[in-house]
Amino acid sequence: MTQRQQGQQKGASRRARRREAIRALRAQGRYGPVLHEVLPALVVVALVVCGIVAGLAVAYRTYGTGALVAGLALLALITAGMVRHHRPLARRRLGFYTAEEIADLDVEGLALAVSRMLRRDGWRALARPDAQGQPRVRARNRLGHRLEVAFRPVAEPLPDEETPTRSARSASSGPHLRLVVHRGTFSRRDVQWARRQGGVQLIDGTRLRRWAHGTPLDRLTDVP
């Protein structure tokens, strides 16, 4: 094999590793879109801005300063309305939810909200169903701590769920910590179950609303 062929193989191998790394980062929500994904939106924005500027210029030449002022005022009102309309969406993407928004979510939406709240608190989080199709969130922080979040009305394992054991939690492949999120109130039996398991934190409705409002997770639980 010639040096040129060896160089080509090494280059292809580096590109393959880079593609795999990018896929992993995107799966964790840590890699932004590439140019060809945002280019259509940029073109539309540029056309809209050019159209607005051209329209204001025509209005000014045709009707004078009054038309220009009226056009700018209308544009300001439209912009303010759009900002107010999209502000809740931007707030939720940053991991902040109101109590009403949390109450209206289904289980999949709650898993997405929890993953955003974890990212807000400095975790790398990914919402993905488990082998049984149940919503789960798995996360990792800068200190290497792993976290798994489960969602169900009670903390006691369901008949078809595997009960976590200490050996499973201590294995290198398993989560270090576990959260069970419930929008209601946990029973005494749930609390006793969590204590027996060890490493399990219960997030009831009150704690969940505080967390969604902006209180960091480490102030609500023993999670580091």
Describe the structure.
The chain is an alpha/beta fold and 224 residues long. Helix content is 57%, strand content 11%. The protein contains eight helices and five strands. It has helices at residues 3-27, 35-63, 65-93, 99-104, 107-120, 166-170, 188-197, 205-213; strands at 124-127, 136-140, 146-151, 177-181, 200-203. It has a five-stranded mixed sheet with strand order 1-2-3-4-5. It is flat, with a radius of gyration of 25 Å. Residues 163-173 have low confidence and may be disordered.
Major beta sheet, strand line-up: 1-2-3-4-5
Characterize the biggest β-sheet. Answer: 5 strands, mixed
Helix content: 55-70%
Structural class: alpha/beta
Q: Roughly what fraction of the amino acids lie in strands?
A: 5-15%
Short description:
This protein is α/β, with parallel strands linked by helices.
Short descriptors:
alpha/beta; 5 strands; 5-stranded mixed beta sheet; flat; 224 residues; single chain; 8 helices
Please specify the SSE layout and strand pairing.
Elements: H1 3-27, H2 35-63, H3 65-93, H4 99-104, H5 107-120, E1 124-127, E2 136-140, E3 146-151, H6 166-170, E4 177-181, H7 188-197, E5 200-203, H8 205-213
Parallel strand pairs: 3-4, 4-5
Antiparallel strand pairs: 1-2, 2-3
Helix pairs in contact: 2-3
